[in-house]
Amino acid sequence: MPMVTRPAFLPGLPNWSRKTFFALALAAICFAFAFPVLWLILTSLRPESGVYYVHRGTEFTLGNFKEVLGQERIVEAFINSAVISTLATVFSLLVTVSSGYMLSRFTGPAARMWFGTIYVFRCVPYISWVLPLYFVVQSWGIYDTYVGLLLPHIAVHICFFSWLMKGFFDGIDPSMEYAAMIDGCSRWGAFIRVAIPSALPAISALAVLCWLFTWNEFLFALILTGNRVPVITVVMAQFVTEMGLHWNLMAATAVMALLPAFLIALFGQKYVIRGLRI
Amino acid sequence: MAAISLSKLNKHYGSLFHAVKDVDLEIADKEFVALVGPSGCGKSTTLRMIAGLEDITSGDIRIGNKVVNHLPPRDRDVAMVFQNYALYQHMSVYDNLAFGLRNKKTPEAEIKTAIDRAAGMLGLHDLLQRKPKQLSGGQQQRVALGRCIVRNPQVFLFDEPLSNLDAKLRAQMRIEIKRLHAEIPTTSVFVTHDQVEAMTLGDRVVIMRDGRIQQIGTPLQVYGKPANKFVAGFIGAPAMNFIDVTVRSAAGVTSVEAEGLRLTIGPADAAALAIHSGRRVIMGMRPEHLTLGSGAPGLGFDAHVEVVEQLGSEILLETRVGGATITVARVPAESTVARGDQVRLSAQAGRLHFFDPETELPIS
């Protein structure tokens, strides 16, 4: 491959000033992203009386967290969110992995139809599914149940993540599977014993994305659940009441809801990035 | 061990693309056959049909005495080496080698013996615990060969296995494959676009173009008696020179003429050429059959040297004869020839080829 040397950015400037420029630019971008989160954390540590003057007061408290965790409904919402996210991830991956594989390896009419179906689903704006889904879920009698929220989530995952999965499998050399078929595997055997293990980094990255997608999802949860199955994103919004806004409590809940994403960023980032690069 | 027989084999992709056309080929037990041709000629598709990786549209494939048309690859008892090695990336070299035998539920002790033997042959002992990613291209291809050997299949299939290696390694691996075939004589089909590989490895060479077999023969046959102009140009490096000439017969002497060139044809070719008298035919001369100097009477011609390629062992001269015709000659490395020189080249009687310009078939 020919070597391509990029022309230096800001030519003519000494090296140190170029470095300073990049450092400042990076700091500015980081700040723009981090500021709302930092403000959220600050708010979650202030008493209710201080939320509008977060930056002024000196009184800090963990009371908000204590109060929030004392509410049974919020604890229940955390558990529900975690369970639904996990189940949605497991079930959607079961389909997504094989559907992505099919999209990548097969070109027959079935594959083309599946491709077209997914494509159409992806073209329709996310929000326009909510109302029909509400009616379907109502008529099936699964409104405000685990299943009633899980099924739409799994469907959305399949549509969105089959494409990513196809991309991963496109990057894996199919001759490995041919070799396996000659070495004594069936088509399915080659898929399960050779293709899936090779795609494992990508599949784990996808699992993380799936999980976070459902954990953070608000719209479906808002419309398709009521009192029986509280989930964290909906419960968080319910601090906006007729009696006023409990910003401090909302912030404390939000900080806790951020934890999974934060932990992944902290420990799993390397694997997610590596997986997405396959 | 088994013979392979392909009869009236066809492969269509959709209604538009006819990739393999009426291929008939008999490969004897323990024979090493090289399928060669330019890209898109159907050679890889043919191989993949033998392997069972590609459905056949019509025709029959027999391995041993069994028709295997609809058998899945795993039931055909073949082993295959791929261009990009196709090693199982998530397994160690040992597990890669063991994969096929484990699928056959072979006892681990037996697997170990088979792997030891293959590793010994291929010098893989130090690599057994490594992952494929930690190996060089040459080492990976040796593992891929090992994976075939341990299974002791009826047929080895090679799909351009040396194409991803650099020139030096390719030559080494070529020798290694040849040595392996001598040690473990197994029916082998070797697909390549490189005619040197095909000629050096194959007991017989099958030349394909546009889905059709052009010629089947030993390396010497396809080199010495090419079945048509395509084969003549494809086999041999540098390629054969083709010159449009007009046949003249006068006073019992047959000669061919082009601008700046007039060669007297020996009695062997003259008889066949006589009926083409006054017509144009294509004359083929291999670069290695041209010599510097006057040579035999009636076979010399003048050429203008345009490019001199010194290879150490020999010199390739690219010359212009008459107005336009480019002719390459292989001459001894010590020859003192420079660009711009006017030299005398001479052809060898009996080493000239003639083709009908319409059918491109040899005139003989």
Automatic annotation (TrEMBL), chain A:
GO CC terms of this entry: plasma membrane
Stored PROSITE patterns: ABC_TM1
Principal localisation: membrane
Keyword hit for Cell membrane: yes
Membrane-topology annotation of the record: Multi-pass membrane protein
Xref: Gene3D superfamilies: MetI-like
InterPro entries tied to this protein: BP-dep_ABC_trans_perm (IPR050901), MetI-like (IPR000515), MetI-like_sf (IPR035906)
Highest taxon, organism lineage: Bacteria
CDD domains in UniProt: TM_PBP2
Domain annotation ABC transmembrane type-1: ranges: 78-268
Entry keywords, A to Z: Cell membrane, Membrane, Sugar transport, Transmembrane, Transmembrane helix, Transport
Positions of transmembrane segments: 21-42, 77-101, 113-137, 149-169, 190-214, 245-268
Swiss-Prot/TrEMBL GO biological process terms: transmembrane transport
Cellular localization per UniProt: Cell membrane
Similarity comment: Belongs to the binding-protein-dependent transport system permease family. MalFG subfamily.
Function: Part of the ABC transporter complex MalEFGK involved in maltose/maltodextrin import. Probably responsible for the translocation of the substrate across the membrane.
Entry-linked PANTHER family: MALTOSE TRANSPORT SYSTEM PERMEASE-RELATED, MALTOSE_MALTODEXTRIN TRANSPORT SYSTEM PERMEASE PROTEIN MALG
Name of the featured protein: Maltose/maltodextrin transport system permease protein MalG
UniProtKB/TrEMBL annotation, chain B:
Domain ABC transporter, first and last residues per copy: 4-235
PROSITE patterns found in the cross-reference section: ABC_TRANSPORTER_1, ABC_TRANSPORTER_2
GO biological processes: carbohydrate transport
A GO term from the CC aspect: ATP-binding cassette (ABC) transporter complex, substrate-binding subunit-containing
TM segment ranges: none
Family: Belongs to the ABC transporter superfamily.
Stated role: Involved in beta-(1-->2)glucan export. Transmembrane domains (TMD) form a pore in the inner membrane and the ATP-binding domain (NBD) is responsible for energy generation.
Protein's UniProt name: ABC transporter domain-containing protein
